[in-house]
Amino acid sequence: MLESIMCGLFAVGIWTFLDWLSIPQMVAVGLASAIGYFGTHVVSDFIKRKVDKL
Length: 54
Hints:
This protein is 89% helix and 0% strand. By secondary structure, the protein is an all-alpha fold. The protein starts with a helix and ends with a helix. It is elongated. The chain contains two helices and no strands. It has one domain.
């Protein structure tokens, strides 16, 4: 559940930034979704490594 919320937050933030750069909306949505998906996995892996060290 938390990963889906985090993915959505990443995607909305990136989409807003790409929209500000005047990137076409269809391209911005696709890029923002991909970055949100991969960003969620990077953050999730980072947290798992930190927890495993405890």
